[in-house]
């Protein structure tokens, strides 16, 4: 993995921009509510100054609303920082559950997002030496596509299990047949191949399976090498 900068191409940049747009929209909503509530407090203050009785409960409710939005803003910023730092080191050992938790939080900022449930398995943490940013991009697109087709009332269950000594399997339950036709597209397939990830559909159970190698040892130093092009280690459907 000598050419680390080559891991982040245009598709990765597009993903980075899409997520940051959703985060900025969330922060904009936070600021809008704080601004409106602060305006209400200003009006109440003017009323009190003019001698009009002001209900203390209105002051308490407005103050609590501002505090709540500030906490929501801090939480959003923490997730933004987690996401931003995921590009610090192109290849690093990570806990897959932390990757999934971050993706769940990031996708939750979308207006059409439903509920994502994470199920932790027993035993050791699912650690993998991989490119966390690219893996996040793949998983994020899968989650977003699900909610785009199923709507905000949908629920998606994600879990991780050991496929074998060299591979972790991330299971997505809750997909509809619509996703089978469009995911993964060529860009996602190429990104997955660059880090040795395999994407399979189990049509019999409407389940998406993403296999993540425990280590990138043996993969070419740059994504896009001939043996890693789509078709070499890409996606396939299972009946």
User: How many domains, in number, for the residues?
Assistant: 2
- Kindly identify the CATH topology of the largest domain: Heat Shock Protein 90
Level-1 CATH class name of the largest domain: Alpha Beta
The CATH architecture of the largest domain can be given as 2-Layer Sandwich
Order of helices and strands: HHEHEEHEEHHEEE
Number of helices: 6
Helix content: 40-55%
Mean pLDDT, rounded to whole units?
Answer: 84
**DSSP strand (E) fraction?**
15-25%
Give the secondary structure arrangement, pairings included.
Elements: H1 10-49, H2 56-84, E1 92-95, H3 96-107, E2 115-119, E3 127-130, H4 132-150, E4 155-164, E5 167-173, H5 177-182, H6 186-194, E6 198-202, E7 207-213, E8 236-238
Parallel strand pairs: 2-4, 6-8
Antiparallel strand pairs: 1-3, 4-5, 5-7, 6-7
Helix pairs in contact: 1-2, 3-4
Description:
The protein is of the alpha/beta class. It has two domains: 11-84; 89-238, Heat Shock Protein 90 (2-Layer Sandwich). It is 48% helix and 19% strand. It has six helices and eight strands. The strands form two sheets. The protein has a six-stranded mixed beta sheet with strand order 2-4-5-7-6-8, with helices on one face. The chain is elongated and about 75 Å long. Mean pLDDT is 84; it is low at 1-5 and 222-236.
